[in-house]
């Protein structure tokens, strides 16, 4: 009976009545991100400032005595305020537009029918259909099927993870291969990504020395202006032959000279020009004074994937081990054409070798992160398997261990093996023979080396903070030109905040870093007196981005 109910649930999903019931109970998914400032708030925050208040009061005094031509100083106030408002509104609209474009759709089953719904229409216990390329928008549990998932967006780990019936799918991750039906178990703030970013849900004040200095000057002037203004007015009014109008105008003129209006306008103008120049390089600045903070940065924290690397792999070389009647390049070409996988390894091979299909396919075994290999049996050619050497060679691995380790110091090593037999259902065929090794590495961004040299010239210290293996990150950093890249640490060995404070100044590469540790590393650097910038492209970076003096969000290329 239980099996029948389960089968019915997989085919039917929630009924319309059950959906309505959950909506009434407010068990509906919702957007947990912080909305951008409203236009009303932006206008209010920029108009109602102490600087503007002082100038407006002086303007009112001049207006009341009828000296309208002496109100021209208010133009400076208008220009300064307008620059800030226009820049912030433009940034808000750009961010809002990006948010709309990024809104995902979900495929679900309700009342036995398939529906496309918005992520904010998903209810608790909804039955979702997830397949290759889909982003998981709510925490769910797999009821049927199996998939491979990329969780690097939330954990920083680039490894593909195999998920089967009963396993949990975390919101924010992506389906790399496979298809499944999954039941929604969390909504809104209960989702994994929301819990990670909960510590970042506050509005952070801009930390600008220029702005703070100008505010101090304005505060000092606002205190001094009252007694000085009274004394000036009494002195002017007491002059023989001077009228009230002249006394007010002369007093205001004297006070205006005390206020650095030109300096404030010049500062806003320079920063606005900087924003425009950055926009030409496709950089969106949200706060005007962030330009100044960026200029003061002396420590830059970078992630590996998406910043130093492109998030893709490339084939560097193919090493022949045993002779074959077909050359390795031809074998790899036919495998890449026949394979339906889209993981980084097969994509790298596909980009290197492309041609026409020549061999007839008999059997296909897709890649599995559990097995660590994939294979194809071709008619009259036998079976070819590519994968992690220790998984495909098994007992024979020790015979080739030395040559594999020789290359594994600098590359990801993929073994290609052959058997005359077909696959044993989904298991490896018997009598496997190692044909060769495929050497693969991460693609370093073309501009990475030049950019890192620029930072060195500017006296900016580089720290690589990644969720990946520290040895792997160290090798990539070395290729990119990061100084002291051999100086790395596995953050899994750092258990206390005291230890973290000790290591933050000693090491350049930090591997196996959790989202909370990223934030703590930034905090430790700031406590050491550094002005810290942090780049990130995933949920795992949110806490550190919020903590940094200057946060740089990089477009996610998933």
In words, what does this structure look like?
This protein has 558 residues and is an alpha+beta fold. Helices cover 42% and strands 22% of the residues. It contains 20 helices and 19 strands. The chain has helices spanning 2-12, 16-24, 39-47, 50-64, 74-102, 152-155, 192-197, 209-238, 244-256, 261-279, 290-296, 328-338, 344-352, 389-392, 397-408, 448-457, 470-480, 497-503, 515-527, 542-547; strands at residues 105-110, 113-118, 127-131, 140-150, 160-163, 168-169, 174-184, 299-302, 309-320, 361-368, 373-378, 382-387, 412-419, 433-444, 461-465, 488-490, 509-511, 532-536, 550-553. Strands 1, 2, 3, 4, 5, 6 and 7 form a 7-stranded antiparallel beta sheet that branches. Helix 12 packs across helix 13.
Helix content: 40-55%
Largest sheet: 7 strands, antiparallel
Ends apart, CA distance between termini: 43 Å
Which ranges are low-confidence, i.e. pLDDT below 50, for 5 or more consecutive residues? none
Strand content: 15-25%
Radius of gyration: 31 Å
Total number of helical segments? 20
Give the strand tally. 19
Bulk shape = elongated
Q: What do the pLDDT scores average to?
A: 83
Structure classification = alpha+beta
């Amino acid at each position: 009976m239980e099996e029948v109910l389960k089968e019915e649930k997989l085919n039917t999903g929630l009924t319309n009545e059950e959906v309505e019931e959950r909506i009434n109970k407010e068990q509906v998914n919702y957007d947990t991100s912080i909305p951008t400032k409203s236009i009303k708030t932006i206008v209010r925050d920029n108009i109602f400032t102490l600087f503007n208040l002082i100038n407006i009061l002086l303007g009112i005094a001049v207006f009341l005595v009828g000296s309208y031509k002496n109100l021209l100083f208010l133009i400076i106030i208008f220009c300064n305020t307008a620059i800030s408002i226009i820049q912030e509104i433009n940034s808000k609209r750009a961010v809002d537009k990006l948010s709309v474009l990024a809104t995902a759709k979900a495929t679900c089953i309700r009342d036995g029918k398939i529906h496309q719904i918005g992520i904010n229409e998903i209810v608790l216990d909804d039955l979702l259909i997830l397949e290759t390329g889909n982003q998981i928008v709510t925490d769910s549990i797999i009821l049927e099927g199996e998939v491979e998932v990329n969780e690097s967006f939330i954990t920083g780990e680039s490894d593909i993870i195999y998920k089967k019936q009963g396993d949990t799918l975390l919101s924010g991750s992506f389906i790399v291969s496979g298809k499944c039906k999954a039941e929604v178990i969390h909504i809104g703030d209960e989702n994994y990504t929301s819990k990670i970013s909960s510590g970042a849900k506050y509005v952070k004040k801009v930390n600008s020395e220029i702005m703070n200095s100008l505010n101090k000057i304005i505060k000092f002037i606002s205190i001094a202006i009252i007694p000085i203004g009274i004394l000036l007015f009494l002195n002017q009014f007491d002059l023989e032959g001077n009228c009230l109008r002249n006394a007010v105008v002369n007093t205001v003129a004297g006070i205006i000279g005390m206020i650095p209006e030109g300096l404030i306008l010049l500062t806003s103008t320079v920063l606005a020009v900087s924003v425009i120049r950055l926009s030409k390089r496709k950089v969106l600045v949200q706060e005007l004074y962030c330009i100044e903070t960026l200029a003061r940065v002396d420590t830059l924290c970078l992630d590996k994937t998406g910043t130093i690397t492109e998030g893709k792999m490339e084939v560097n070389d193919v090493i022949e081990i045993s002779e074959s009647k077909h050359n390795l390049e031809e074998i790899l070409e036919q495998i890449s054409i026949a394979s339906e996988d889209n993981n980084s390894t097969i994509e790298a091979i596909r980009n290197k070798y492309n041609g026409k299909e020549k061999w007839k396919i008999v059997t296909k075994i897709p890649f599995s992160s559990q097995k660590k290999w994939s294979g194809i049996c071709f008619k009259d050619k036998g079976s070819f398997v590519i994968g992690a050497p220790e998984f495909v060679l098994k007992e024979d691995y020790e015979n080739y261990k030395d040559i594999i380790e020789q290359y594994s110091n600098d590359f990801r090593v993929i073994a290609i093996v052959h058997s005359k037999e077909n696959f044993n259902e989904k298991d490896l065929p018997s009598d496997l023979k190692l044909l060769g090794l495929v050497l693969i590495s991460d693609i370093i961004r073309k501009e990475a080396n030049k950019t890192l040299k620029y930072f060195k010239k500017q006296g900016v210290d580089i720290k690589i903070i990644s969720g990946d293996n520290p040895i792997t990150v160290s090798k990539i950093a070395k290729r990119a030109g990061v100084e002291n890249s051999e100086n790395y640490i596995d953050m899994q060995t750092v258990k206390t905040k005291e230890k973290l404070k000790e290591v933050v100044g000693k090491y350049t590469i930090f591997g196996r870093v959790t989202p909370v540790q990223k934030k703590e590393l930034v905090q430790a650097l700031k406590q050491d007196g550094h002005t810290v910038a942090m780049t990130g492209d995933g949920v795992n970076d949110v806490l550190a981005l919020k903590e940094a003096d200057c946060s740089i969000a990089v477009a996610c290329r998933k």
